[in-house]
Amino acid sequence: MTVRLTSVKRYAVVFMLFAMLCANAGCLLSLKSMATKKNIVTNDSLEGSWECEKTKDGWTIGVIKGSKQYRLTHRDPDSKIAVFKGHLLKIQGKLFLEIIPADEINKDANFYQRLSYIPTYVIIHVQSLDSALELSDVNPNWLKEYLKKNANAIEHSIVNDRVVLTDSPDKVSDFVVQLTNEPKAFTEARKYQKLLD
Question: Which of 3-17, 92-106, 118-132, 170-184 shows the highest mean pLDDT?
Protein backbone atom coordinates (compact mmCIF):
# COMPACT_ATOMS: atom_id res chain seq x y z
CA MET A 1 0.00 0.00 0.00
CA THR A 2 1.38 3.41 -1.00
CA VAL A 3 0.63 6.41 1.20
CA ARG A 4 0.58 9.81 -0.49
CA LEU A 5 1.03 12.92 1.60
CA THR A 6 -1.16 15.90 0.92
CA SER A 7 0.63 19.24 0.65
CA VAL A 8 -0.57 20.12 4.16
CA LYS A 9 0.87 16.89 5.58
CA ARG A 10 4.10 17.46 3.67
CA TYR A 11 4.32 20.93 5.25
CA ALA A 12 3.74 19.36 8.67
CA VAL A 13 6.61 16.91 8.14
CA VAL A 14 8.83 19.72 6.89
CA PHE A 15 7.89 21.88 9.89
CA MET A 16 8.81 19.11 12.29
CA LEU A 17 12.27 18.80 10.75
CA PHE A 18 12.65 22.57 10.67
CA ALA A 19 11.56 23.03 14.27
CA MET A 20 14.28 20.70 15.48
CA LEU A 21 16.85 23.05 13.95
CA CYS A 22 15.55 26.28 15.47
CA ALA A 23 13.99 25.31 18.78
CA ASN A 24 15.57 28.15 20.75
CA ALA A 25 15.56 30.91 18.16
CA GLY A 26 13.55 34.12 18.47
CA CYS A 27 13.02 35.15 14.88
CA LEU A 28 9.58 35.53 13.37
CA LEU A 29 9.08 33.00 10.58
CA SER A 30 6.57 33.03 7.74
CA LEU A 31 5.88 30.61 4.94
CA LYS A 32 4.89 33.45 2.64
CA SER A 33 6.71 36.64 1.73
CA MET A 34 5.21 39.98 2.74
CA ALA A 35 7.08 41.74 -0.09
CA THR A 36 5.05 43.60 -2.72
CA LYS A 37 6.00 46.21 -5.31
CA LYS A 38 4.39 48.82 -3.06
CA ASN A 39 6.19 47.99 0.21
CA ILE A 40 9.71 47.18 -1.02
CA VAL A 41 12.06 50.10 -0.32
CA THR A 42 15.77 50.72 -0.36
CA ASN A 43 17.78 52.92 1.94
CA ASP A 44 21.41 53.88 1.29
CA SER A 45 21.96 54.03 5.06
CA LEU A 46 21.45 50.26 5.30
CA GLU A 47 24.38 49.44 3.02
CA GLY A 48 27.73 48.70 4.60
CA SER A 49 29.26 46.56 7.32
CA TRP A 50 27.73 46.61 10.78
CA GLU A 51 28.83 45.17 14.11
CA CYS A 52 27.12 44.82 17.48
CA GLU A 53 29.55 45.10 20.39
CA LYS A 54 27.08 43.55 22.85
CA THR A 55 26.13 40.42 20.88
CA LYS A 56 29.42 40.12 18.94
CA ASP A 57 27.70 39.50 15.60
CA GLY A 58 27.65 41.51 12.42
CA TRP A 59 26.07 42.13 9.04
CA THR A 60 27.41 43.19 5.65
CA ILE A 61 24.58 44.53 3.52
CA GLY A 62 24.46 45.72 -0.07
CA VAL A 63 21.90 46.18 -2.83
CA ILE A 64 22.05 43.55 -5.57
CA LYS A 65 22.90 45.46 -8.75
CA GLY A 66 19.88 46.32 -10.87
CA SER A 67 17.33 45.38 -8.21
CA LYS A 68 15.73 46.47 -4.95
CA GLN A 69 16.89 43.26 -3.32
CA TYR A 70 19.66 43.14 -0.75
CA ARG A 71 22.44 40.64 -0.27
CA LEU A 72 23.05 40.22 3.46
CA THR A 73 25.94 38.35 5.00
CA HIS A 74 25.57 37.57 8.68
CA ARG A 75 28.48 36.64 10.95
CA ASP A 76 27.37 35.14 14.24
CA PRO A 77 29.33 35.34 17.53
CA ASP A 78 31.09 32.07 16.63
CA SER A 79 32.21 33.58 13.29
CA LYS A 80 29.92 31.31 11.28
CA ILE A 81 28.84 33.00 8.07
CA ALA A 82 25.49 32.84 6.29
CA VAL A 83 24.43 34.63 3.13
CA PHE A 84 20.88 35.82 2.57
CA LYS A 85 18.87 37.67 0.00
CA GLY A 86 16.01 39.83 1.09
CA HIS A 87 14.13 43.07 1.06
CA LEU A 88 13.72 46.09 3.26
CA LEU A 89 9.98 46.52 3.65
CA LYS A 90 8.06 49.58 4.77
CA ILE A 91 4.62 48.53 5.98
CA GLN A 92 2.31 51.08 7.58
CA GLY A 93 5.33 53.25 8.37
CA LYS A 94 7.33 50.43 10.03
CA LEU A 95 10.53 48.91 8.63
CA PHE A 96 11.32 45.20 8.42
CA LEU A 97 14.02 43.07 6.90
CA GLU A 98 12.58 39.95 5.32
CA ILE A 99 15.34 37.50 4.48
CA ILE A 100 15.75 34.00 3.11
CA PRO A 101 18.98 32.02 2.57
CA ALA A 102 20.65 32.83 -0.73
CA ASP A 103 22.45 29.50 -0.95
CA GLU A 104 22.03 25.92 0.13
CA ILE A 105 22.58 25.42 3.83
CA ASN A 106 25.63 23.56 4.99
CA LYS A 107 26.16 21.71 8.23
CA ASP A 108 28.16 24.63 9.66
CA ALA A 109 25.45 27.22 9.00
CA ASN A 110 25.06 29.98 11.57
CA PHE A 111 22.05 30.89 13.71
CA TYR A 112 20.04 32.91 11.16
CA GLN A 113 20.65 30.49 8.31
CA ARG A 114 19.58 27.48 10.39
CA LEU A 115 16.34 29.37 11.08
CA SER A 116 15.59 29.35 7.37
CA TYR A 117 16.71 25.81 6.60
CA ILE A 118 13.36 25.21 5.03
CA PRO A 119 12.44 28.06 2.71
CA THR A 120 10.73 30.26 5.24
CA TYR A 121 11.09 33.99 5.50
CA VAL A 122 12.78 35.41 8.59
CA ILE A 123 11.22 38.73 9.60
CA ILE A 124 13.36 41.16 11.60
CA HIS A 125 12.03 44.48 12.90
CA VAL A 126 14.24 47.42 11.93
CA GLN A 127 13.69 49.85 14.79
CA SER A 128 16.14 52.47 13.54
CA LEU A 129 18.45 53.29 10.66
CA ASP A 130 19.55 56.67 11.99
CA SER A 131 22.87 56.76 13.88
CA ALA A 132 22.91 52.96 14.27
CA LEU A 133 21.17 49.96 12.77
CA GLU A 134 18.79 48.70 15.46
CA LEU A 135 17.32 45.23 14.89
CA SER A 136 14.87 43.34 17.03
CA ASP A 137 13.51 39.79 16.86
CA VAL A 138 10.15 38.62 18.08
CA ASN A 139 10.04 37.48 21.71
CA PRO A 140 9.15 33.78 21.20
CA ASN A 141 7.69 33.27 24.69
CA TRP A 142 5.50 36.36 24.42
CA LEU A 143 4.29 35.31 20.96
CA LYS A 144 3.36 31.79 22.09
CA GLU A 145 1.41 33.15 25.05
CA TYR A 146 -0.30 35.75 22.88
CA LEU A 147 -1.39 33.11 20.36
CA LYS A 148 -2.64 30.81 23.13
CA LYS A 149 -4.97 33.61 24.23
CA ASN A 150 -5.72 34.82 20.67
CA ALA A 151 -5.58 31.63 18.61
CA ASN A 152 -7.53 33.19 15.74
CA ALA A 153 -5.32 36.28 15.49
CA ILE A 154 -3.46 34.74 12.54
CA GLU A 155 -3.12 31.36 10.88
CA HIS A 156 -0.04 29.67 12.21
CA SER A 157 1.49 26.33 13.08
CA ILE A 158 3.26 25.45 16.29
CA VAL A 159 5.76 22.66 15.87
CA ASN A 160 8.12 21.67 18.66
CA ASP A 161 7.21 24.86 20.48
CA ARG A 162 7.97 27.16 17.47
CA VAL A 163 5.51 29.51 15.76
CA VAL A 164 5.48 29.70 11.96
CA LEU A 165 3.01 32.09 10.33
CA THR A 166 1.04 30.41 7.54
CA ASP A 167 -1.55 33.07 6.71
CA SER A 168 -1.80 35.21 3.57
CA PRO A 169 0.90 37.85 2.97
CA ASP A 170 -1.55 40.70 3.69
CA LYS A 171 -2.61 39.18 6.99
CA VAL A 172 0.97 38.44 8.00
CA SER A 173 1.90 42.07 7.21
CA ASP A 174 -0.96 43.43 9.32
CA PHE A 175 -0.13 41.06 12.18
CA VAL A 176 3.57 41.94 12.18
CA VAL A 177 2.79 45.67 12.27
CA GLN A 178 0.32 45.05 15.10
CA LEU A 179 3.10 43.30 17.06
CA THR A 180 5.25 46.44 16.91
CA ASN A 181 2.61 48.15 19.04
CA GLU A 182 2.89 45.52 21.77
CA PRO A 183 5.57 46.54 24.31
CA LYS A 184 6.87 43.00 24.97
CA ALA A 185 6.41 41.45 21.52
CA PHE A 186 9.96 42.14 20.38
CA THR A 187 13.29 41.71 22.09
CA GLU A 188 15.42 44.67 23.10
CA ALA A 189 16.99 46.08 19.95
CA ARG A 190 20.52 45.06 19.11
CA LYS A 191 22.47 48.19 18.13
CA TYR A 192 24.89 47.77 15.26
CA GLN A 193 27.50 50.42 14.54
CA LYS A 194 28.64 50.96 10.97
CA LEU A 195 32.26 50.04 10.39
CA LEU A 196 34.43 52.45 8.46
CA ASP A 197 35.43 51.28 4.98
Answer: 170-184
